[in-house]
Structure formats: structure tokens, C-alpha cells
Design a protein that fits this description.
Blueprint lengths: L9 H36 L1 H10 L2 E6 L6 E2 L5 E13 L7 H8 L7 H13 L6 E5 L3 H9 L7 E10 L7 H4 L2 E3 L2 H4 L12 E3 L2 H5 L1 H5 L3 E7 L5 E8 L6 E4 L3 H11 L4 E6 L6 E7 L5 H4 L4 H9 L8 H4 L9 H10 L9 E3 L2 E2 L8 E2 L7 E3 L1 H6 L3 H22 L21 H8 L5 H8 L9 H12 L10 E5 L6 E3 L13 H16 L6 H4 L7 E7 L23 E8 L6 E7 L5 H26 L7
Parallel strand pairs: 2-10
Antiparallel strand pairs: 1-8, 2-3, 3-4, 3-5, 6-7, 8-9, 10-17, 11-12, 11-21, 13-16, 14-15, 17-18, 19-20, 20-21
Helix pairs in contact: 10-22, 14-16, 14-20, 16-18
Length: 628
């Protein structure tokens, strides 16, 4: 009989079950322990952190943008203000078919490709319940057409808010500057929290330099929101502190006259109070309309400004670097007197040209037949180049350089506005450093009449003129006179700063040069005598002509009026008035204007008439008869 086969091992099955049960219990225990430990971490160890997160899901802090401060002229004329402006905005979640709605909307409101491209880009960055600007500053007719058709466009609305505007447009653009939308570059230089609700920032001019004062301090609104981030109710508000008002030193009447005097010509005018350094007028022509930049200038408009050969965006008053021409001659004359290189009564023979020893090159005088024997007074009054060629040679480039630097040429004036150029007063060391070349005596001669490498800005020339008028006392120019708190109406005066005086000139030397500058305007042979005719006051000045290209030695009958307009000489004039008690100093440059006496000097006379008329009125009310 065969052996019986066993099909079940009870002991083995029992052992296997027991092992699996133990393993399962161990896994469950381990997982339970892990959950318990995690709960301890969440509920006890990190309770504070998650409690705060939970609270922030309910309460949020929303920033409130401050109102930007205003900019006024010294006589209270508004130069930069805030006005209500419209914007067309969209809440995406309320629009069923965005592209279809945009198509219909384009039939009643102009939507350019730039507007749509900017809108679609912003659409991707924001949440669907947040409003997105579709079109900035629609005109009143477009706003009216939208409201008539508003029922057709759910989710679209017109919002009104404060926007920067400049009442005078291009007249003051290079002074006030403008604000525009904050860029990525701006984000690296601003206080992030304080600008959390701000969309615009100063980009140039006073708007940029005094950004901190004009901007103000951000406010906050504490609100309750739901899980999607929507505001349910307002809990508390800390109001924003508005920006401070800035009062410039500009005289609005004088500024308007300067703009009118230049007209459509390219050039610059700077007028300064010699006593305080207050800039009374600063004009660069042509200008531009800063209002176009506030909410984003169109590409086509910006390209037109950028590519214009007249360079309207270029601030000629601060950044224009021109050969100063004969306007430096009073400073060179003072150096010659002080260094005892030339006495005021010593004469030089002027045949109409000058040559260095053993050199047949002729350095021309502006007067072909020459001036004959001239002393210092005649040399300044008639602007004799030969006299100053010889004086520059005798001084040498080092003393010539040092004398011009003493009057502030070749360095920034530190005016309270960005973008100032430094100009250039050449020297032997400069030429080696900049060009790796030696200095030649001929270059000293041309430097003596403000040509060659020498460059100056209109602002520098105005400051140098103010220094001349005060016999060497130099004041730092400034554009802002007061800053006012709009909440308390308390105004803080900006103090004037006196710079290092020109100390190497004696009193009798000042008398000689300033008398000659007076005779430039009122003398019989003065180069600006036409501008001085009929004036009720005396003023002193110096004409200048900046040559833009060299003239061949064989060119005996050169006629500046026959060359292309943009290749003609620049016309310059520096002056102060009244001569004996200066109240205003002016530098005028008219690009390609030709003669300083015929073109630039009459402009200065117009400014003097306007500005001094207010003092004439004051004097008459006080019982006097004229301004001396």
C-alpha cells in the first residue's frame, strides 16, 4: 500500500502568518510614529510660523501711493503739477471673449499696436481678477464714446487718477525734467517699500535730482481678503505723506523772454544772480514736450526726437561744450596783468595776423586789416586776437590754464540738476594723458582766444561772468530756492554756497578789465555797442565767436555767410548788469549765429530790460528815478 501524501503544513502556515502580522504591526507603528512626530512639529514646534501664514491668508497690507509734490517758479508759477487723467482698464475674468471685445472696442477707441502689445504682456503678469491698463489717457471724446457703449463691454472701465503734467510744455523741459514709469534700472536705485504703490519716478532735471523730496512717504491700508486674494473689508488705514513742494529760483517772466528771444534758433541761455548763485533762467533750444513721456511716449514720437539733427533732448545749457571764443579774453587779460606780463597801458602792434618766430604760419585776427597799436582796453573793446596771441605766448600754457580754471572753467559747477558736463581747459599734462602727444606753442595761442581744445558749457560761462562781476567772488549756482511741506506750509530755504574766490587779481586790475567790458557795450568802437544803444542802465559784456573749422592760409576773403548754415560760427555773449551794482549775469550762445555782437548781445539786452524793469519799478516807488 503506497505512503499517504500530506497537502497542508499547519505549523509553517502559522509561522508565516505570525511573521506577516508582526511586520504589518511594525510598519503601522512606524507610520503612526512618523505622523505623530510631524503633528508635533506642525502643532508645537512650528506653530507660530503657520499661525502667521494662516493670518496672512485673511489680512493683507496694501500700500497707498503718496501724492507727488509740485514744482513752482520763484514767483509762484506752476511748472509741474498733478491733474486727473483717465485710463481704460480691464478685469480679465469678467470678459468672456477678450479678442472679440478688443476688436469691437477698437471701433470706438483708438487702440494702436503698441497699446495692445503692452496690454497682452501685462495680462500675463497679473491675476485674472486684477485690473490691467489697456489704454492710457484716452481723450474726452473717446471717454464719452466708451460710456455710451459701456453696456457692450463688461469688465472694461474708465479709471481716474492723478497724473503728472507740465503746463509750460517745452519751455521749462530741460529744467524741470519729467517723470515716467519705473523701469527695471530704477528698481536698483530706489527704496523698494516706499515705492511699492508708486508707478512713476523722476527721470531727468529737477524731477530726478529732488526725487526724494518730491515723492513723499508711502501709506498703508490693512484689509481682509478671501482665499483668492479679493478684498472683503477695510480694517485700518495709515495715510500716505505727500511729497514736498519745490520752489525754483527761476523767474517766470525772464524764462519766457529767454525762450522767445531764442525763438526757433539752436542755442542756450543761462542767467544767474551774482549775489546768491540763483539761476534766474536756463533755456536750451529747441526743447521737447515732457508731457509726452509721462505715460509712455510712442516709439514713433521718441524716434523722431532722438534722430532729429536739432537734438531737442540734449540740454545745451548744461551738456553743450562749445569753444568759448573771445569770451575768455577778460580772464586772460586779468592773468596777464596779475602776472605782470603786460601792463594795461602797454601796446601791441596788430597788422591783422600774428606769427611765431621762425614760423611763417599766420594766426589770423578777425579784422583783416588789423587794429594797429592796441592797449588792453582797446584789445578787449575791439576783441583784438593778435593782442591775445602775444599775451598767451608770454603767459605760457600753464599760467593760462591756471587762470581759466580759477574762474571755474574745465570743471562741473555742482549745480543741483543731473547731467552736467565738465568742459575742458587744456594743458600739457592733459594732452600727454589724453592723446599721448606733446604740446605745441601754436596751441597756446589758440587757447588764448578760447579756441583749439578749450571747451566750456553755457552754465560755466554764466558762472564765470558772475565771478567777474563780483571781482572774483564765486557762488555755486542753484536751481532750487525753497522746499515747502504741504502739510504744515513750512518752507526751508536752500542756502547759497560761496566757492573759492579768485585771489590772484588786484583791485586796479579789476578796474581795468571791468571798465573795458563796459566799453565793449557803450564804447564808440565796442563790438556790442549796438546792443547797448538806448539802454537806461549801463551793462558790461564781452562778445565771442566760436569758429567751427580751420581756414586755409590762402583764404583771404572768407565769408562766413556763404558756408552751410550748420557750419557757420557760433555767436556768444557774456554780460552783467548794471555795471556798478550787478543784479544779473548772463551767458548766451546761438549755434551757427555768426557774430556775437549782432546775434547774441541783443538777446542779453532783452533779458536785462525785462529783469531790471522790476527793480526800476521798486526804485520809482521808493522815490528814486533810475537803476544805477
Amino acid at each position: 500500500m503506497p505512503a499517504q501524501l500530506s497537502l497542508k503544513d499547519a505549523d509553517q502556515e502559522s509561522s508565516l502568518f505570525r511573521n506577516r502580522a508582526i511586520f504589518s504591526v511594525a510598519v503601522i507603528s512606524l507610520l503612526s510614529l512618523t505622523i505623530m512626530l510631524r503633528l508635533v512639529v506642525l502643532q508645537i514646534i512650528r506653530h507660530g510660523h503657520f499661525s502667521t501664514l494662516s493670518q496672512e491668508n485673511q489680512v493683507k497690507i496694501l500700500p497707498i501711493a503718496p501724492t507727488r509734490g509740485l514744482i513752482f517758479s520763484r514767483d509762484g508759477v506752476l511748472l509741474a503739477g498733478n491733474q486727473q487723467s483717465h485710463s481704460l482698464e480691464v478685469v480679465p475674468e469678467r470678459v468672456d471673449n477678450m479678442e472679440e471685445s478688443l476688436g469691437f472696442l477698437g471701433e470706438i477707441i483708438s487702440l494702436e499696436a503698441e497699446d495692445l502689445a503692452r496690454f497682452r504682456e501685462n495680462l500675463r503678469k497679473k491675476r485674472r481678477f486684477e485690473p490691467v491698463v489697456l489704454r492710457a489717457e484716452p481723450n474726452e471724446e473717446e471717454v464719452a464714446r466708451f460710456f455710451v457703449n459701456k453696456h457692450r463691454f463688461p469688465g472694461f472701465s474708465i479709471k481716474t487718477r492723478l497724473s503728472r503734467y507740465y503746463p509750460n510744455g517745452l519751455s521749462d523741459a530741460h529744467v524741470t525734467g519729467y517723470v515716467a514709469r519705473i523701469s527695471e534700472v530704477d528698481l536698483h536705485r530706489i527704496d523698494g517699500p516706499n515705492y511699492s504703490a508708486t508707478t512713476h519716478i523722476g527721470k531727468s532735471g529737477v524731477e530726478k535730482y529732488y526725487e526724494t523730496e518730491l515723492h513723499g512717504q508711502v501709506g498703508y491700508q490693512q484689509v481682509e481678503v478671501n482665499a483668492e486674494g479679493r478684498v472683503i473689508r477695510e480694517i485700518a488705514t495709515v495715510p500716505a505723506i505727500p511729497g514736498k513742494h519745490v520752489y525754483l529760483t527761476l523767474d517766470s517772466r525772464l524764462q519766457a523772454e529767454a525762450v522767445a528771444a531764442l525763438g526757433d534758433r539752436r542755442g542756450a541761455i543761462v542767467a544767474i544772480d551774482p549775489e546768491t548763485g540763483a539761476v534766474l533762467s536756463l533755456v536750451s533750444s529747441p526743447g521737447y514736450d515732457p508731457n509726452e513721456f509721462v505715460n509712455g511716449i510712442k516709439s514713433s514720437s521718441y524716434k523722431k526726437l532722438r534722430d532729429s539733427k536739432d537734438r531737442p533732448l540734449f540740454n545745451r545749457a548744461l551738456q553743450g561744450q562749445y569753444p568759448p571764443g573771445s569770451t575768455v579774453k577778460p580772464m586772460v587779460a586779468l592773468a596777464g596783468l596779475s602776472e605782470e606780463v603786460r601792463g594795461s597801458a602797454e601796446t601791441v602792434w596788430c597788422p591783422g595776423w600774428y606769427s611765431l618766430p621762425d614760423d611763417d604760419h599766420r594766426y589770423r585776427d578777425w579784422k583783416k586789416g588789423g587794429h594797429g597799436h592796441v592797449d588792453l582796453n582797446h584789445a578787449l573793446v575791439e576783441s583784438c586776437d593778435v593782442y591775445f596771441y602775444q599775451l598767451a605766448k608770454d603767459l605760457g600754457i600753464k599760467r593760462l590754464h591756471d587762470s581759466l580754471v580759477a574762474f571755474g572753467l574745465g570743471s562741473k559747477t555742482s549745480i543741483d540738476i543731473p547731467g552736467e558736463a565738465s568742459g575742458l581747459v587744456p594743458s600739457e599734462e592733459w594732452k600727454v594723458r589724453a592723446r599721448n602727444e606733446v604740446w605745441y606753442m601754436g596751441e597756446t595761442l589758440t587757447a588764448g582766444i578760447g579756441q583749439g581744445f578749450t571747451l566750456a558749457t553755457p552754465l560755466q560761462l554764466a558762472v564765470a561772468t558772475a565771478t567777474l562781476s563780483r571781482r572774483g567772488i564765486s557762488i555755486r549756482p542753484r536751481l532750487v530756492g525753497q522746499i515747502e511741506d504741504p502739510m504744515t506750509l513750512q518752507a526751508v530755504e536752500i542756502p547759497w554756497v560761496e566757492e573759492d574766490a579768485v585771489r590772484f587779481v588786484g583791485d586796479k586790475h579789476w578796474d581795468a578789465v571791468l571798465t573795458a567790458m563796459n566799453d565793449v557795450v557803450h564804447g564808440v568802437t565796442g563790438t556790442a555797442r549796438g546792443a547797448g544803444e538806448g539802454a537806461a542802465y549801463k551793462f558790461a559784456g564781452k562778445t565771442g565767436t566760436a569758429q567751427l573749422f580751420g581756414i586755409s592760409q590762402e583764404e583771404d576773403d572768407f565769408d562766413n555767410t556763404q558756408v552751410a548754415e550748420r557750419l557757420r560760427d557760433h555767436a556768444l555773449f557774456i554780460a552783467f548788469a548794471p555795471t556798478d551794482d550787478p543784479l544779473i549775469a548772463v551767458a548766451v550762445i546761438v549755434e551757427n549765429g555768426g557774430s556775437g555782437g549782432r546775434t547774441a548781445a541783443p538777446i542779453a539786452r532783452r533779458l536785462f530790460d525785462v529783469y531790471l524793469s522790476q527793480y526800476q519799478s521798486i526804485a520809482m516807488r521808493a522815490g528814486e528815478t533810475e537803476v544805477h
